[in-house]
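Anyone opening a protein record will find just a pair of labelled lines. The record below illustrates this layout.
***
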Amino acid sequence: MLLVLSEEQKAHLGCLPRLGAAAVGELGRLAVELLRRGAAPRACEAAARKLDVGVDTIQHCVEGLTYLLTESSKLMISELDFQDSINVLGFPDELNTVLLQLYLDSRKELRSVLSELAPKLPSYHSLEWRLDVQLASRSLRQQIKPTVTIKLHLNQNEDRTAQVLQTDPSTLLHLIQQLEQALGEMKTNHCRRIVRNMK
């Protein structure tokens, strides 16, 4: 699977050949630090002074490298696919080798950082349900009005929460059909490929 870069990202990475392979290694470490600790304007300023280029140029290069490394790590791109993805940029072989080594060295760390940054979604714990049927009221002697009450217990960050939902049976049947359709969709090859690339 090849990584497709937009024109803006190619422009951000376009200044790398001017800076040289040694500087690219340093900017790659700066990009990994950017993900781990957040924005570091002082580090960009120091790198700009050291390389004698503008701060904006360094920031663009770091942003481009950050995108290249994170997307490649997210998609678990192989060495060969990564090389093919950066060959499109037309960089010299020495620079391509430095970028490949940077990717291989930081791939596992980037995946762990990205997994920490992912939002923690609630997970299912248990479900309670009750069926209520109103058979008559003062104004209507013969009516049948069923209601399903569902109490959904969820775990989120080791906290347990409960959501109470109330609906009529026809809406519940429609909801069940939609969920079964979604589960069936997850078994298709296309969805399996997407889920595999997300892990």
